[in-house]
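Can't paste images in this forum, so I'm doing it all in text. The chain is below; anyone willing to post the predicted structure tokens underneath?
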Amino acid sequence: MPGELRDRFDETSPLLEWGVLDSVSTATLLGFIRRELRVTVPAAQIDPANFADTRSVAEMVRRLATAAPE
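Text version of the structure:
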């Protein structure tokens, strides 16, 4: 991420628009979520709205973790 964007980055920064997330980095993020947070993101949830910013990613993970069977 260019320095000028890094300086302005927060939880509402547009990940897709700024190019922070592309297909490869999204796959890496999904692997991290599955491995480290033990939450599997179903294909139906891989939607631009769920990856718009870090806040939306966190809300998606929280929602999926809460809905996951014990």
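Residues 30 and 41 are 7 Å apart (CA to CA). DSSP finds three helices and no strands in the chain.
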